[in-house]
Amino acid sequence: MTQEEYFLGFTPARWRAGQAIIGNAARLLGRLHVHGAERLPREGGLVIAVNHFSWFDPPGVGAAIQRRVYFMAKSEVHRVPGLRQLIRYFGTFSVRRGQSDRDAVRLMREVVRRGEALGLFVEGTRQRSGVPGVALPGAAMVALQERVPVLPVAIRGSFRWKPFQRVDVAFGELLRFDDVPANGKGYKEATQVIEREIHRLWDWLGEQPPRGTTPPPRP
Question: I need a labelling partner for 156 at 20 to 30 A (CA). Which of 28, 31, 111, 213 fits?
């Protein structure tokens, strides 16, 4: 599939179908509580940076995001028959972990360049400890190279998830790195900020569970 075929394939109709079917199932089975959804820009290039615990995270976060989002997933997931076709149908593309995947990087940059939202699970893999892990530089790299903002998002309650176990998703404030250089030092600096914000949001969800409230402003 060419890059252009990929973008033409993930139509608004497909996104709406995913929200109606997979999104509603995630809201019901995850007893999904969303905090700070008004912080999500409705248009424009954007990197959405999220922590990752389980397979529930993509549909759970996707259900909370009220705009079309292109997720990236490890190539191993795309080798699973049935699942591969499903996630590709709804705009997910693959990346080869542990090596330089220039095609995936080009596609990540093209997503935001076209004014779309790119969803990245920043640790690169599920966290087995039950707490958010160390962020990798992918989100920062795309944001700095294309000069788009990053929206930090934390998901809590999906670790060892079971049906009807409550899951919370919190949106943080937009992070802009307009003055940070697009080089190794800049990627490291921005990644640390993104990681810190996701951890802060995740801690907030644990300390302040009231439904329908908004996380406090970034310190």
Answer: 111
Q: How many Å apart are CA 104 and CA 73, to the nearest integer?
A: 10
Q: Token pair for residue 163?
A: 């049906």
Please report how many Cα atoms fall inside a 13 Å half-sphere around the Cα of residue 158, on the Cβ side.
27
Q: Is residue 151 within 8 Å of 64, Cβ to Cβ? A: no
Nearest to 91 by CA among 169, 170, 19, 166: 19
What domains appear along the chain, each with residue ranges and CATH number?
A: 3-207 (3.40.1130.10)
Six token digits for residue 92: 């997910």
- Classify burial at 23, counting beta carbons within 10 Å of its beta carbon; exposed 0-12, middle 13-18, buried 19 or more: buried
What is the DSSP code (8-state) at residue 77?
G
Q: Which residues pair with 95 in a beta bridge?
A: 74
pLDDT tens across 170-219, in order? Answer: 999 999 999 999 999 999 999 999 999 999 999 999 986 555 455 555 43
Residue 5 half-sphere exposure, CB side, CA atoms within 13 Å?
4
Q: Residue 14 is inside which H or E element, if any? A: helix 12-18
Output the pTM of the full model.
0.88
Helix or strand run (H / E) with residue 150: strand 150-156
Distance (Å, whole) CA 4 – CA 73: 19
